[in-house]
Amino acid sequence: MNVAVLVLVACAAAVFGIAAGYWLPPHGRVPAAGVRERGERRILLPFSGQEISRRSFEAAVRLAKAENATIMPAFLAHVPMSLPLESALPVQCARGMPLLEAIEQRATSLGIPVDSRVGRGRSARDALRRLLEQEHFDRIIINADEDPRVGLSYEDLRWLLQRVPAEIMILRPGFKDDRRISVDAVSGHF
Amino acid sequence: MASLAEQTRGRLKVFIGMAAGVGKTHRMLLEGQAEQEAGRDVAIGLLETHGRIETARVAEGLPLIPRRRVRYREAVMEEMDVEAILSRRPELCLIDELAHTNVPGAGHAKRYEDIEDVLAAGIDVLSTLNVQHLESLNDHITELSGIRVRETIPDAILGRADEVVLIDLTPEALLERLRAGKVYPVERIDAALNNFFRIENLSALREVALRQVAEEVGAKRLTTELVGSRVESLAADAPQAVGERLLALVEPYPGAQRLVRRAWRSAQRLGAGLDLLWVRPPGKALSGEQQRSLTALRQLASVLGARMFEEESDDVADAVVEVAGRRGSTYILIGSSRPARGLARLRVPLPQRLMARLPGVDVRIVADRAQRPGVESP
């Protein structure tokens, strides 16, 4: 009798274990500690230089917290006319990837879900346009103090306001607040 | 067994360098002189001295096959005379500038095609090439230097060469030669210094050239092993190839991009190539969000110059072992996994399975740096 019970218990345990092993993905990811579930709303934070203003990052974080949204930092890479549009751009990536990493680390440490993007085009506007064609974003937060030689010009900002069906927040430079997030903020070997 | 055509085909030796002026033609001529002294019948099929006195002096004593004249529009140009080389039939022919584009109407469009004819006739060839003329490197070098080179050759041409010799010079030494008028005439020196011949360009090109030759050596070694059907014995005995190659395991979820960026930075530091692998569970449809993550991953791989593989398999380890073997990976990078529960605890974790099945390959688990204590919040 006891043996039968033991066998029954062992079989039940085995079935339970098999079921647990089946339902739990064997190579699932460790969720980042303290990061809440990914929000439905998506906030795009595009940049093309080596730093962004802390004001725009903080605005993105505030909005993401309030709206339970995901921040989507996007590096806009510029493809020279002499190269095919699909070209690898390791030199620009060496500048852009560390900043993407720094933004992602900062947002994650604040419990905000992040999903990065890389856009590629003949200009920053073209890269942004291609990105916006591929995906929908609920809000776009833009720095108005980016260097227009490498980033978005005032003309581009007007284009954005006229053509893009998303809420757009353009942050003008802070007169007393010139704090930036740069590649120096990255933690680790980046 | 090699075919008769392969047995009678001439041997091709290419002198490759980072830029004009490193001494490729000079070295080619010196080897030609040495071969002639050793008793071989040597001839110059084509030589571009670019007015360099040193180069012209080294060429003295080597028979020169005259060029032929080709009329193009209103001008008369000179090109290598392949027919004359084939009828002269030297044992060894020196042909400068492998990537040269012929004048329209001069037979083949490219000089490497002319060289193929010469090799097919059983004549050995020495030739020269600058690394930026290789098709696969052209875009990369354009991004580095801002200057696009129009004359390119398929990489396979270099791959078919029997010997590739790197002519190396430090950027400082090359600039010294340039300033001394040993590369270009005096009137072109300033323009050269302000455009292509900048120290950062030359350093980057030198790195590309060194890596390219290392990869050629690695590829040849691998080919020899496969042709000889001694893969296992050689794998056990032979030293490892020079080049490193990283393989990062990814899944379509947002955190995978961080793994890819870290892998790319590591690859850059090692001077290694980067591959990405997603092992897709069979028959499983992707959600909309996964599909977007996958598109973003592909875009990231493309902009970083990494190659992304997608393999359908039930067993991640099997797929990784297969791709790592095929690609010659020396590092495997994986993200940290969720702790196993239930009977899955009995399963050997993926990193251990990979280490057991890929001896000699580093397996690295990439941590999330944002979770490190001390990471500041703004």
Topology of this structure?
The complex is a heterodimer of chains A (190) and B (378).
Chain A: H1 2-23, E1 42-47, E2 51-53, H2 54-67, E3 70-78, H3 90-109, E4 117-121, H4 124-134, E5 139-143, H5 154-163, E6 167-171, E7 180-182
Parallel strand pairs in A: 1-3, 1-5, 3-4, 5-6
Antiparallel strand pairs in A: 2-7
Chain B: H1 4-8, E1 12-17, H2 24-37, E2 42-46, H3 53-59, E3 68-72, E4 75-79, H4 82-88, E5 92-95, H5 111-120, E6 124-130, H6 135-145, H7 155-160, E7 163-167, H8 171-179, H9 186-194, H10 199-227, H11 231-237, E8 245-249, H12 256-270, E9 273-280, H13 288-304, E10 307-312, H14 316-327, E11 331-335, H15 350-357, E12 362-366
Parallel strand pairs in B: 1-6, 1-7, 2-5, 5-6, 8-9, 8-11, 9-10, 11-12
Antiparallel strand pairs in B: 3-4
Helix pairs in contact in B: 2-3, 6-10, 12-13, 14-15
Identify the CATH architecture of chain A. Answer: 3-Layer(aba) Sandwich
How helix-rich are the residues of chain B, as a percent range? Answer: 40-55%
CATH superfamily of the largest domain in chain B: P-loop containing nucleotide triphosphate hydrolases
Helix content of chain A: 40-55%
Roughly what is the average pLDDT of chain B, rounded to an integer? 83
Which structural traits does this protein have?
heterodimer; A: 190 residues; alpha/beta; Rossmann fold; two-stranded antiparallel sheet; 5 helices; 41% helix; elongated; B: 378 residues; 2 domains; five-stranded parallel beta sheet; 44% helix; 17% strand
How would you explain this protein's 3D organization?
The complex is a heterodimer of chains A (190) and B (378). Chain A is an alpha/beta fold and 190 residues long. Chain A has one domain: Rossmann fold (3-Layer(aba) Sandwich). In chain A, 41% of the residues lie in helices and 19% in strands. Chain A has a five-stranded parallel β-sheet with strand order 4-3-1-5-6, sandwiched between helices. In chain A, helix 3 links the parallel strand 3 and strand 4. The longest helix of chain A is centred in the N-terminal third of the chain and has 22 residues, at 2-23. The radius of gyration of chain A is 23 Å and the shape is elongated. In chain B, helix 12 links the parallel strand 8 (245-249) and strand 9 (273-280). In chain B, helix 6 runs antiparallel to helix 10 and helix 12 (256-270) packs parallel to helix 13. Helices cover 44% and strands 17% of the residues of chain B. Chain B is α/β, with parallel strands linked by helices and 378 residues long. Chain B folds into two domains: 4-227, Rossmann fold; 244-371, Rossmann fold, CATH 3.40.50.620. At the A-B interface, helix 1, helix 2, helix 3 and strand 4 of A face helix 6, helix 12 and helix 13 of B.
